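Our working data are protein records whose layout never changes between entries. Getting from the letters to the tokens is the skill we practise here. To make this concrete, we reproduce a full record directly below:
***
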Amino acid sequence: MVSLKNILTHILQAHDFEVYEKDGVLRGEKDGAIVTVGLYDNITVKEIRAHAGYVSHEQGNHIICVLEANETAEEEARALGLTIWKRSDLETELGMAITDQIRTGNTIFKGLLEQPQAPIESHPLIIENLGTEGQPNVLKTHLTLDDVKEIAKNTIQGFKYELEFVPHYIFNYSCSYEGKDGQTVQRSGTISVNALTGKFSEWVHQPEVDTETEHVIQLEPKIDQDNAEKIAFHAIITLNTEYKEIIIERDHATIMERATYKPEMGAIVLEHQVIVMVPVWCAEGKHGVMILDGITGKVISEDYYDSH
């Protein structure tokens, strides 16, 4: 199996960083910018504090890359000024480092090198740009066959590749709720629901419609619109949930409780609905199989063989 270190090295080099390792920490340097990356399969709060102390004297952006991390560890990392990358972030960045999006700068990694922006509570609505009449829109893939081969080479050593088009329900939404700071939070965005598996995700990219779709097979949805809407409501609540640790003194004991802040069903509005066909690459290799989103380059799923 390709090591976490090799994957991060590949990502850093894709951004033209000079990469080296010092004291078990991966480092990248480019035009005076410095990035440090601590690599962990899983991590504890104690390890996060130790890592923060180790890199605190260095200028630059400090990343912890971890395959598994609980919410307490994530919150501790952010409180100490560390950027935490989990498996999903790593998969996204690996895919985007291969595609044309890296040349336009639209990656989470490059965002670390830019001036901090004010928090954005909403994403632009997408459906109006897709249209709602006629046959489902087929979205253009940004991953070429060569891109997929490169990604698979660094993971499963791929040898077989197929491009498929999967139907997705797309919903624009808006919601409001009382946030953990006591202020009213208003958010809006776009949710996609896979019409075959029911998996959801939030869309922040602007897709392109493919006009050359003569040979595209449009699969029939296995999930109807009513169930897709139920999944979308669940997704919106999940994606817009905040937590806050509250310390309570009770009977000479200190108790820590977690308060949850999230939108109620009645405060959520689904504004439009349309079906689009999303390009998906399926790659089979010596060490397993993987499925990649043809638009974002993100690894949707992967299954390694036992011998891998």
User: Anything to note?
Assistant: Residues 98-106, 113-121 have pLDDT under 50 and may be disordered. Residues 197 and 222 are 8 Å apart (CA to CA). The two ends are 6 Å apart (CA to CA). The chain has eight helices and 14 strands.
